[in-house]
């Protein structure tokens, strides 16, 4: 479990009441509606993103009274965004239709990050009818604008970078000490957009535990977000001391649908779990998480087909383990973030500089020569946005000791089995909160 986090920043902003400003009675009516019946919330990710960036915020919203079933993410094939915008818009239309019908709400609230702000600004500006179904829009460290997109009340949050960036007419909030993805997942951002949506502060920015939580989500090909077909997900409770399975048989098995979705799995909020993605004739992909404290519908199992994608760049053998780490808050290798693997910090200013905005770390024995070299990143990985690759020899065998330290915060201990990379793939998700 994490040691308690740093104190939160002070309250950031007021509320945007409308393109031309709402009257006081109208503002009160907005807040009253949100307090009694929160509107559906839809998050739209950026380049090479998915619902994962909004996992913590979705659980914060649910902790503060939002129904989890009305918090969704709209995912798309970001590398091909320019050619599929009409399909993205049509899919978003259908999602909003469904959410408004199911919830009985008058409108939805939208958030978008990075490339997603290009998508949503275009969507809102494309049609007055589309804009009329959106109560609030949150523009997260992305595209600037000279007017409110579609005239929709807008909150624009900006991380480190050019302080002159704005959306004209919006409430613009600067978080200069936060990096690009951190502006999506941080407690400070949550406090700001919750107040923007509801007119009041959240009761808490912590994620409160459920008594009977469930997890569900999708198994998808990175970065297209296409569903993984013909697979099953196996859930195993883990021994907290070494990360090994507590039983040979999975506690739960779920089929993966054509869209990659798998049905809810009941879990113990105090336990750690492995989700194993099993496909006939392929290496098992093991996913490890910190304890799921409450219901989580945004679980994403990011993988690739054999010989395709980033996974094809990883050298494998019977002698070593290959690990992939994800965290929706950038790793700053020389500025307070550490990632200890078998007792050695593998992050530094060369392989995870602040300017690289690393959220994905690939660590394996490059060349399968049992030699470690942390002096420079692996260039083919470092060339990919938000990624780095590290030549680190991790012997296959019994257990890999993993300790993650986030800048300004405590330590997280997440041991995992040392699977042979020739037969297994291993991904580890570190919480961002």
Automatic annotation (TrEMBL):
Keywords for this protein: Signal
Species of origin: Actinoplanes lutulentus
Lyase is among the record's keywords: no
Upper classification of the organism: Bacteria, Bacillati, Actinomycetota, Actinomycetes, Micromonosporales
InterPro entries associated with the record: AB_hydrolase_fold, AF_1763-like_C, AFL_C
Taxonomic superkingdom: Bacteria
Signal peptide bounds: 1-28
Domain AFL C-terminal: 214-306
Domain AF-1763-like C-terminal: residue ranges: 326-432
Transmembrane segments: none
This protein's name: Uncharacterized protein
């Amino acid at each position: 479990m994490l040691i308690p986090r740093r104190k939160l920043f002070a309250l950031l902003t007021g509320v945007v009441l409308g393109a031309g400003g709402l009257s006081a009675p109208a503002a009160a009516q907005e807040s009253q509606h949100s307090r009694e019946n929160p509107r559906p919330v839809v998050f739209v990710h950026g380049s090479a993103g998915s619902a994962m960036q909004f996992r913590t915020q979705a659980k914060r919203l649910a902790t503060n009274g939002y129904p989890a079933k009305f918090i969704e993410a709209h995912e798309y094939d970001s590398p091909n965004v320019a050619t599929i915008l009409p399909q993205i818009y049509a899919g978003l239309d259908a999602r909003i239709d469904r959410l408004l019908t199911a919830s009985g709400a008058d409108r939805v609230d939208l958030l978008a990050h990075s490339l997603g702000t290009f998508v949503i600004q275009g969507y809102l500006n494309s049609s007055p009818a589309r804009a009329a179904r959106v109560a609030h829009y949150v523009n997260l460290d992305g595209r600037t604008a000279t007017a409110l997109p579609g005239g929709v009340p807008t909150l624009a949050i900006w991380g480190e970078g050019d302080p002159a960036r704005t959306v004209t007419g919006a409430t613009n909030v600067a978080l200069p000490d936060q990096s690009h993805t951190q502006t999506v997942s941080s407690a400070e951002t949550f406090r700001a957009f919750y107040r923007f949506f509801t007119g009041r502060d959240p009761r808490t920015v912590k994620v409160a535990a459920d008594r009977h939580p469930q997890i569900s989500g999708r198994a998808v090909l990175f970065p297209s977000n296409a569903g993984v077909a013909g697979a099953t997900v196996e859930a195993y409770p883990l021994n907290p001391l070494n990360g090994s399975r507590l039983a040979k048989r999975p506690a739960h098995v779920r089929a993966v649908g054509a869209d990659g979705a798998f049905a809810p799995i009941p879990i113990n909020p105090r336990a750690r779990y492995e989700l194993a993605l099993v496909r006939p004739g392929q290496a098992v992909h093991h996913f490890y998480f910190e304890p799921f404290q409450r219901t989580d519908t945004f679980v994403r199992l990011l993988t690739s087909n054999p010989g395709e994608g980033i996974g094809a760049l990883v050298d494998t053998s019977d002698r070593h383990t290959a690990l992939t780490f994800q965290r929706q808050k950038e790793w700053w290798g020389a500025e307070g973030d550490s990632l200890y693997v078998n007792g050695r910090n593998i992050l530094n200013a060369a392989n995870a500089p602040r300017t690289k905005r690393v959220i994905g770390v690939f660590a394996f024995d490059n060349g399968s020569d049992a030699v470690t070299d942390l002096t420079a990143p692996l260039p083919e990985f470092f060339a990919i946005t938000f990624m780095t690759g590290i030549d680190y020899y991790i012997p296959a065998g019994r257990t890999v000791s993993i300790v993650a330290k986030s800048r300004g915060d405590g330590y997280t201990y997440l041991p995992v089995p040392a699977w042979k990379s020739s037969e297994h793939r291993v991904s580890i998700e570190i919480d961002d909160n």
